[in-house]
Amino acid sequence: MASPIAISVDPEPITEGWSEYALDDGSTIWFKLVVTRVQVHFSTSDRSGPPIGIGVTGNPQVVVKSRPEDMGEAETVPDDVASSAKRLSIGFHSTNAEPWNYYRLVGAPAGLEYIKVRNTVINVYRIEGHYDKEGSPLYFVQQSSAGGPAPPDEVRAALQRAASTITSAPPTMKGGS
Description:
mainly beta, nine-stranded antiparallel β-sheet, 9 strands, 12% helix, elongated
């Protein structure tokens, strides 16, 4: 009996949109996960048959815009601050539809050329008494990802939507304030 195996493939971004959340404390955060590695799991080491699972890893990106009265002194944040400092749970709601992000998989098996990933924020905590390098309150964001294969026609439609609209991006990325 053959053993299960996972292979790593490189994702090439096709579209990566930002999710926007209004926080109950008056701040706004924009969040996205930049996928850096995809693991394709097979039930047998010879990779016969369809994949049985896909796992993604990546780098979360969070941009914060806070009210002037909530700003503090900019600081370099210690690595362990999220686990050692007091956290205050902050309510939030999504202000845009959390977008699907699409990737082409370089070196993936036939039939799995594209995947889609959607990230959803599930908890937001303000780290009391700490501020980021721009002076905004520091937040710890927990997120969950869902995804799977993306049919080529869905990818084409996503590209057409992206070409015809400006994606939701943080003000600092659009040149605004």
